[in-house]
Amino acid sequence: MIKTDILIIGAGPVGLFTVFEAGLLKLKCHLVDALGQPGGQLTEIYPKKPIYDIPGYPSILAGELVDNLLEQIAPFKPGFTLGERAEKLDKVGEKMYRVTTNRGTQIEAPVIAIAGGLGCFEPRKPPIEGIEEFEDKGIDYIIRDPAVYKGKKLLIAGGGDSALDWTILLSDIAEEVTLIHRRKSFRGALDSVEKVMQLAKDKKVNLITEAQAIGLNGNGVLKEVVVKQKEMGEFAQEVDNFIPLFGLSPKLGPIGEWGLNIDKNAIVVDTRDYSTGIPGIYAIGDINTYPGKLKLILCGFHEGTLMAQSAFKYIYPDQKLSFKYTTVAGVNGFEE
After folding, report:
1. Are 251 and 148 in contact (CB under 8 A)?
2. Low-confidence residues in the chain, pLDDT < 70
3. CB-side exposure of 232: number of CA atoms within 13 Å?
4. Helix (H) or strand (E) segment spanning residue 242
5. What is the pLDDT of residue 43?
């Protein structure tokens, strides 16, 4: 059982920055995210996309922003449960909730901050008959620990940043990496495309374009992927793991069943503190809605800041909240 002051559902940029604001108030945070690494969309979908509306940064790469946020919150030692989806909510005390994930992890906290961005991201699956049979038995949609693939034969499918970046990284870990893409051109960053092309030229990666996976073979565990290529026709590729990286689809998921006020797949909040109407439960970032809502990261930072202040008052109603500027006290002045 994990216990904390604030359980943050969603480890995207807004959830991460909220750790900092809560840490200044000596509130401990634990984050849960269905993705295998922090950063949300910024890490999973467009890590090398420049962002132009972060104050103080005329331009910053999405992945770099996540790195900076993680460095900023490191002094407050947040906990992380990654690769798991928040599923069940139970009230277990006057001011205490218990959230259980789809893998059975339980976290208790008096305050829950839902910072799930556009919702719980679910992988887009290729339309292959019987694919569910091999999920977690050779098919992975999210890479949680690259070391798992050491010495393995991998088939990666996709043409975006995620497929390219993982191909580059795993080429130094796996025994064999094959990347297939249904087109000749790629959607990812030019630098990543050039690196993959060079790896293919150096025969460190097998690159097959104008190809797609159409079938799976194995007896309970994946053994082969049937690939169809424009000129080569159909052939069976022997693999240990098939990793289709076709992006993610946002869905509100189980949170939609928690009794919150939902409007068009977003959680209605009070703009005084971004509370949901259920005591101790807040919603911040793109997952909430209110009159005049703008889905910008900087707006989410503002929402997380006010939420943290309200959370302190909710947890410690008898204590006086003395807000201090970090320019005066410094972050170290707030550490335990």
Report:
1. no
2. 45-46, 48, 118-121, 144, 249-251, 322-336
3. 13
4. strand 241-244
5. 79
Q: Give the domain CATH number at 197.
A: 3.50.50.60
Same domain, 57 and 90: yes
The pLDDT value given to residue 331? 54
Q: Is the model's pTM score more than 0.85?
A: no
Residues 308 and 287 grouped into a single domain = yes
Indicate the number of domains in the chain: 2
- How buried is residue 67: exposed, middle or buried, by Cβ count under 10 Å (0-12/13-18/19+)? middle
**Residue type at position 52:** Y
What are 314's two structure tokens? 């909710």
Residue type, 177: V
pLDDT for 332: 53
Q: Which residue is associated with the tokens 């989410």?
A: 300
Query: What is the reported pLDDT for 336?
Result: 42
Domain boundary among 203, 228, 246: 246
Give the N- to C-terminal CA distance of the chain in Å, as an integer: 23
Do 114 and 30 share a structural domain? Answer: yes
Beta bridge partner(s), residue 289: 268
Q: Provide the domain limits for residue 73.
A: 2-122+249-334
Helix, strand, or coil (residue 101): strand
Residues in Cβ contact with 71 at an 8 Å cutoff, skipping those fewer than 6 apart: none
**Cα 126 → chain centroid:** 20
Phi-psi region of 158 (alpha: psi -120 to 50; beta: other; left: phi over 0): left
Contact predicate 226/234, CB 8 Å: yes
What is the rounded CA–CA span in Å between residue 50 and residue 104? Answer: 37
